[in-house]
């Protein structure tokens, strides 16, 4: 007698249960990408600031972190520069920033290490000034501090990227410049 080929009822039920579990998780994670956009943008800004600090130490020169907001569209961007007025821009590692359409339009150059706020994401920061800089020792300074200063007037910056009730905050600590 020949045995019938196919799946048993138990195997079919198990596959259906597993597919249901996986699809429930996947739909929940991918239904609204704005929360992940907010997290991704906060991570990009933290990476940008860490890179600025490491570059200042490696090149033994000040590196400025500039927050700017377009007054018409209320869209923010964060960039790295070698000068307070950004006349000398820090090239992006690998030769290109994230390259999103918003970053390309707000940062003018894809080779400048600059990142623009994604659409639908709210950005805020508590900085008393929109610019600070890392010294050659990696310590953060307020932009009004002289480049030759040894004592910093910088106070902690909290940069927040949020969507709805979900927020991601990047902190730059005074004294050490620790970015987290």
Automatic annotation (TrEMBL):
It comes from the Bacteria. InterPro entries: N_methyl_site, Pilin-like. The chain crosses the membrane at residues 6-27. SUPFAM superfamilies: Pili subunits. Keywords: Membrane, Transmembrane, Transmembrane helix. This is Prepilin-type N-terminal cleavage/methylation domain-containing protein. The lineage of its organism: Bacteria, Pseudomonadati, Pseudomonadota, Betaproteobacteria, Burkholderiales.
């Amino acid at each position: 007698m020949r045995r019938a080929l196919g799946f048993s009822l138990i195997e079919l039920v198990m596959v259906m249960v597993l597919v249901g579990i996986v699809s429930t998780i996947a739909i929940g994670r991918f239904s609204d990408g704005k929360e992940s956009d907010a997290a991704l943008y906060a991570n990009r800004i933290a990476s940008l600031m860490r890179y600025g600090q490491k570059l200042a130490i490696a090149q033994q020169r000040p590196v400025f972190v500039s927050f700017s907001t377009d007054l018409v569209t209320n869209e923010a961007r964060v960039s790295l520069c070698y000068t307070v007025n950004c006349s000398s821009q820090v090239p992006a590692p690998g030769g290109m920033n994230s390259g999103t359409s918003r970053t390309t339009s707000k940062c003018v150059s894809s080779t400048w290490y600059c990142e623009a706020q994604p659409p639908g994401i709210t950005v805020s920061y508590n900085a008393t000034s929109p610019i600070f800089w890392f010294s050659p020792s990696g310590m953060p300074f307020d932009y009004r501090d002289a480049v030759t200063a040894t004592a910093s007037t910088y106070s902690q910056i909290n940069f927040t990227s949020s969507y709805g009730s979900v927020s991601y905050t990047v902190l730059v600590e005074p004294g050490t410049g620790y970015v987290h």
